[in-house]
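Same chain as my last thread, 237 residues:
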Amino acid sequence: MWRPVVVCLSLLAADPSQAQDLIRLARIADIPDQYVGGEMLRAVYAKLNIRLEFEDLPGKRALALSSAGAVDGEIQRIGTLSRDYPTLIQVTPAINYIEPAVFATKLRFVVAGWDSIRDYSIGIVRGVGSSEAGTRDMARVTAAASLDNMVRMLDADRFDVMVTDLFSGLVAVRKLNLQARIYPLSPPLERIHIYHYLHERHRDLVPKVGKVIAQMEASGELAALREALVKQVLATP
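reply #2:
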């Protein structure tokens, strides 16, 4: 997992050492954007004097535990999550966004939405809701256990293209030193706003967290923090 040395400490409003409460959130393992979203939420919860811890898990396992209340919620998921997991309550406004993108090794074409990849064999990461929703009903979809695993499978020509959020894909490809072979196609498939979720036992906390997110969004603090975190992850060897 990524460990930026400095994350714009002036953006954090409270000293975590003084936090009186603890919230444990599921974090999809080895997904760079989940790291960024988690650190954004750390800043949000610091303003409420609440400390965060993260449980790194595969995507499906994360949902099983968070929806059962074994952990307190999810860092960030797509907006329709509560439809399938009603015990998870969406916190609004959105905490982050992702841009699902197509990566390839041989193909070159202009991406025109999800239907433009329908005729190809596609790799996705199991449990990543945006990828599962976007490729639903497509004939040749392979679900990999992790992002790194999917990148290696694409490198081995196990499928024609892979789909992951653009930022996470770039980080994973560089991590595995495959930049000369694997590249993103343009433009991204779409931009999706993603939301923080808390288990229903924390129902009273939901509006408080949402209020802080809204304030940080309005002030530009949230966007500045995201930009700083993305730059630091991309710059980390």
